[in-house]
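ok so I'm stuck.
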Amino acid sequence: MHEEQFVKCLMMILSSNKSNGEIFNVGSDDEINIHDLVYKLSKKYSLKVKKKSYNNKIKDIYVPNIDKLRNKFNIKSNYKSYLSIIKTLDFFKLKKMKSISRKKI
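replied:
not stuck anymore, here's the structure
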């Protein structure tokens, strides 16, 4: 889930009578293989990553169950997790570049 949608979800939960003090999982419910994610990010950003061998039979994933959030607030994810991560990293990369260019002036 992209940070923009994350904040909107939190604000919706906090400002709604529907939440009634309940606890909600907030995030993206698309399955991410951590090893694949690291590989994709390392290629995109030209990062050197030490590859450790791991058992391919074990799935290393994280998928929050957001059914309760989706049902109560009709939440739909705008982006898949990988794209959300890319958008967030690019935002901070651009912000850092702007900060550096201001310091040079």
